[in-house]
Design a protein that fits this description.
Length: 211
């Protein structure tokens, strides 16, 4: 797949990882910047259950709008503090456009960050209820009779990432984020009230050389 196959709104030289859906992309006027941040440790990922607002009842990273005068990474840090009570050395790993039919006529440009460490104590906030989930490699091949440390045992008991309760296209890029691959993408949804249906998506990864 070459550059010619990139969805409108994306530029660069990327290797396609996943794509699907209908035949044409939605039109949009302009882009608005948003952030989304994940803490990813050896075998677990921190998500929040969104208690109100856009994406209510879904699990997601922590994030929101980039305010005037802020950079994306500053906004990501502020939102992580506001929604989960922690600070973290966030690193940028991806960007995707999120366009809706039946929603705004602009595209969300969502900047994705991750960190392995964090400082502070996790708190439940009005917006998010935090929860750790096991990343896919966890628990595989551990025979029942194997003695594992208390810490490892706690991880084994975490639930797997709840993709069925997340934005529908997250399943295509979260694996890239978990394996520290820089990515870009676009996802078009149809929205009716609070129900969003995935119509078309494209995700690709970029070689380390360009970052
Ligand atoms: N994982 C994932 N996150 C998404 C998708 N689409 C989408 O908007 N988001 C994220 C980006 C933002 O983190 C969040 C939307 O921002 P928000 O409405 O919570 O922003 P905010 O906190 O600044 O808003 P507000 O409380 O000020 O109204 O949802 C998606 O397809 N997947």
């Amino acid at each position: 797949m070459g550059i010619a196959s990139l969805p409108p709104g994306l530029e660069g030289n990327f290797i396609e990882v996943s794509s699907g859906g209908g035949s044409s992309w939605l039109a949009f006027n302009t882009k608005r910047l948003y952030t989304n941040a994940f803490i990813i440790q050896d075998d677990k990922i921190l998500l929040g259950y969104k208690k109100r607002g856009f994406g209510v009842h879904k699990y997601n990273g922590f994030g929101g709008k980039v305010e005037q005068g802020e950079t994306a990474v500053q906004a990501a840090a502020r939102e992580l503090q506001e929604e989960a009570g922690i600070t973290a050395p966030l690193e940028h790993y991806g960007t995707f456009l999120f366009v809706t039919e039946g929603g705004p006529d602009w595209a969300f440009q969502i900047e994705i960050f991750r960190a392995e460490e964090y400082s502070g104590t996790l708190i439940e906030t009005d917006e998010m209820r935090f929860q750790w989930f096991a990343t896919p490699n966890v628990g595989v091949g551990i025979p029942e009779t194997t003695v594992v440390s208390a810490a490892a045992q706690a991880v084994v008991e975490l639930l797997p990432i709840p993709f069925d309760s997340m934005w529908e296209s997250d399943r295509y890029w979260i694996p890239l984020l978990l394996s520290k691959r820089h990515f870009i993408g676009r996802t078009d949804f149809k929205s009716v009230g609070e129900t969003f249906t995935l119509e078309k998506w494209w995700f690709g990864e970029i070689g380390a050389r360009e970052w």
